[in-house]
Specification:
The complex is a heterotrimer of chains A (306), B (326) and C (249).
Chain A: H1 3-34, H2 41-59, H3 62-83, H4 93-115, E1 131-134, E2 138-141, H5 142-164, H6 166-176, H7 178-183, H8 188-211, H9 221-235, H10 240-266, H11 271-296
Antiparallel strand pairs in A: 1-2
Helix pairs in contact in A: 1-5, 1-8, 1-9, 1-10, 2-3, 2-4, 2-8, 2-9, 3-8, 5-6, 9-10, 9-11, 10-11
Chain B: H1 3-24, H2 28-53, H3 62-80, H4 98-120, H5 125-145, E1 155-156, H6 171-194, H7 196-206, H8 208-213, H9 218-244, E2 246-247, H10 254-267, H11 274-292, H12 297-309, H13 314-320
Antiparallel strand pairs in B: 1-2
Chain C: E1 6-15, E2 18-28, E3 33-37, H1 44-52, E4 59-64, E5 67-68, H2 74-80, E6 82-85, H3 97-109, H4 123-136, H5 151-164, E7 169-173, H6 181-194, E8 200-203, H7 207-213, E9 216-221, E10 224-229, H8 231-236, H9 238-245
Helix pairs in contact in C: 3-4, 3-5, 4-5
The chains are: A mainly alpha (306), B mainly alpha (326), C alpha/beta (249).
Amino acid sequence: MSPILLAEQVLNGLQSGVMLFLMAAGLTLIFGVMGLINLAHGSLYMIGAFAAAAVAGATGSFALALVAALAAAAAAGALIELLVIRRLYARDHLDQVLATFALILILSEGTRWLFGSFPLYLNMPAGLSGTVTLPGGIVYPVYRLALIAVGIAVALGLWWLNARTRLGIRIRAGENDREMIAALGVDISKLYTLVFAIGAALAGLAGALVGAIQSVQVGMGEPVLILAFVVIVIGGIGSIKGALIGALLVGLTDTLGGVLLPELFKLFTDPATAAATGSAFASMAIYVLMAGVLIWRPTGLFGART
Amino acid sequence: MSRERLLNGALLLALILIPGWALYADEPFTITLATRAVIFALAAVGLNIALGLGGLVSLGHAVFFGIGGYAMGILASHAQSYTPLIEWPFVIEGTKSMPVIWLVAIVASSCAALLIGLLSLRTSGVYFIMITLAFGQMMYFFAISWPAYGGEDGLSIYVRNGFPGLNTLVPIQFYGLCLALLCLVLAFNARLMRSPFGLALDAARQVPERVRAVGLDPRRLQLVALVISGAITGLAGALFADLNRFVSPTMLSWQMSGEIMVFVIIGGVARLFGPVAGAGIYVLLEHLLGGVSEYWQIFLGLVLLMVVLFGKGGVVGMIAGRRRDG
Amino acid sequence: MADPVLATHGLSKAFGALQASDAISLDLRAGEIHAVIGPNGAGKSTLIAQICGSLAPDAGRVEFLGRDVTQESTQARAARGLARTFQTSALAMEDTVLQNVLLGALGASGRPWRFFSRASRDAALRDRAEAALEAVGIADLCELRTAELSHGQRRQLEVAVALTLEPKVFVMDEPMAGLGQEGSKRLTGFLDGLRAQAPILLVEHDMDAVFALADRISVLVYGKVIATGSVAEIRRDPLVRDAYLGDEA
């Protein structure tokens, strides 16, 4: 395992980490402010990807595709919030899980009905499709570097939103005491719809961006959703900082584990078996990480301590 | 005779009469459908103990279903290829005997439930839900990448396993076996709900602080509930694999977890025959609507949404009213 | 003088900048009712939580029956004989009155690991449960769902559940809360007789009940015990009058 290869994998880990962060940030924001666990977040990721693929296919413009992704996901999010999610805030978690699971069924099968079962392709923009040589001789795809940049930008943007804007103040107040901000005259329903739409837009953006590297198909969102849950558990529910750190940890563990564990196993058995069993154990690596964090901190690294 | 007892009786009667008619009318496919419903019901009865009685929203329950399935798959595949599972420190051969397979499935899923429970029950609320989902996903990916037992393609078992005294290849006989197991577990479940353990567990769901204040540990009660729950769903998994003569990572997927939960919710959570009603309705919808459109799950999603938002208590709840305790 | 049944030594707890408990030392002797009074926000609930084990103190000790139980969990202390009633009734609302007291009896027996027998048919559990209901006077309600009870009946059930433990000590958090005149008088009479069974640490706002029942009173203000003494002593104490009772006491 050469240092260059290792460095590439670290970058890959960071890239998948920041994309996870986009999902996890939305989820944790929605849970922190509204106390709602939202399984349909993966569907919003998928909707963003499909909107981007459809628009890119029709117009050839990646920029337009991204705008479409953000708009479609935000609109879908707002619509779902108004029709369904609104009725769930007062319900217990089981009801929220079931209702949002029902939404997954409706949205996934609905998308399959509209677009069919075959994957769509989203081409990455020509300007970003090359590679660049980084210090140390690492040859790395420009697009992936761009994703890392987008992730950092979103993190900074969320920080700015939270710390420096009135909306951020309302969000933080809402996280602390829901009844109080209603009493203070903040329009709760509008706030909630907005927060949900923001979370949805982030998911849609992630779906579109990742859709250019992987394919766009029904069901692409749920594995990412579950990973985002792992991120939130590790980082602590309600904490955006926790979501960022958790996401980077998970991204790095997953990528590096997938590369290093087979190498480790090669010390014990033949290459073929090592590759297979190594990657099998690598698939468990992040969950072992999650279990480890939970043993140490049952509410996550930055979660509220009880 | 309360309405719930009548409903339960009616459901049981349906489970006997419908396959009976199918046998008479020579419709083996209906018997297979009924078997599918009964096995799903069994899996859901397992979940209902953790969810309905214990209040544990276990979103990764398919992990036990899949472990039971793979217990069957691994044992039977070694038997059919005449190779032992391991040779050192002692030889373990495969087997195609259902009672042995069931025992292994139950033990394996109980152990998994114990481990998962010990970790997950350190948390509560949303954390617990997410963690159980995560562990389910972990086993799913592990099963896909572990090379020895088919990976993503799954494992086929050419001949259904055997049960002493029966010819399990005959659909009605295998159905009868599954039905007998379901009835046994339902009887156990009914006992459990009224037992001291059931009382304590139910209280732990409603007022854990009170349970502590009388000297009991809610966490330990919930752990035992999860183990029992996992064991039953694991048994269902072994039966399911035998029904289809096939096991694959799909049995461990989040979709499967969601389906098992749908059986419980549509039927009526915390009701004895809720899982039976729910599984029956699901299989019916799958068969009837699935024939009309391959997008029938949109309709399932709508039904589920309606039940959650407006229909408190699922089908059993709507027909039989509120739960009466005895 | 015999050792106190229950005692706290220097119990302290802070929530950020708020000192909810400030070196609280008090004790409960056999056969007595020791009332803890104080204005809202004085830290009474925090104190109860630390005594019963649901909150860990920052400093100090809790001793029960001569043993340091500060590190022990709520259920361990309950198993030793510490029975508490909650300010907001902690009852299984979906279950019947009988099932709630059966739970108490089950806890007292310490053996919940029975899966096949019927809880309601277990003679030992049933006897204990019904005796507690009889003592409190709500035996005729035993088949009703707890959600259907009136507030006063629920407070009585709350006490009944504590009784099933046949405890060595009662810790009661505002048992009179929400009871009308009738109910308060009845409960006061009941608690009066109860002290013979086990001493009671009583947190209460209802001054009539406190002055009628208490052998000793401790006054808690801003997390600190500012006075401990007999009813007469406390009524006369100028500090207490200033802080809490006013001049009508």
